[in-house]
């Protein structure tokens, strides 16, 4: 287990040059935006426009902050995503256009290479104590808002807003959490 502090996340330009992304974690560790196996990042979207194309990649997106945006994914009806919406999964190698509802938003992106990997992203609201079952996978637990303490297999720690916990082999255990926070759990498995 490793804590990834918000202040240490890597900032880099979008692939299409129209914004900035905050990379929380990537594998392999030295991968670029063109050759990663998996990548978890946050981005601020400040204007309407197309998403970058990532050949052979599957993507899931959740809205962390702002009034939402409509995503038009090629071959599907437009979808309004807000902070209350479930994360939306879609292929990253088709045409996707974003239209902001009312001002900029911040989103969370989980991307995996389609051949060999799969992922899942869920939102977890914490108000007091909670046990979060971890799948036998690589897991990233992001504290989006609030703060919490955690325990797993005798190890303890704390996360503030923007911090993440990377668990490289969860082996179907449980993460014990205490606090008040809105969190996201990304799990990455081999397919």
UniProtKB/TrEMBL annotation:
<dbReference type="Pfam" id="PF05962">
    <property type="entry name" value="HutD"/>
</dbReference>
<keyword id="KW-0614">Plasmid</keyword>
<dbReference type="InterPro" id="IPR010282">
    <property type="entry name" value="Uncharacterised_HutD/Ves"/>
</dbReference>
<dbReference type="InterPro" id="IPR011051">
    <property type="entry name" value="RmlC_Cupin_sf"/>
</dbReference>
<protein>
    <submittedName>
        <fullName>HutD family protein</fullName>
    </submittedName>
</protein>
<dbReference type="InterPro" id="IPR014710">
    <property type="entry name" value="RmlC-like_jellyroll"/>
</dbReference>
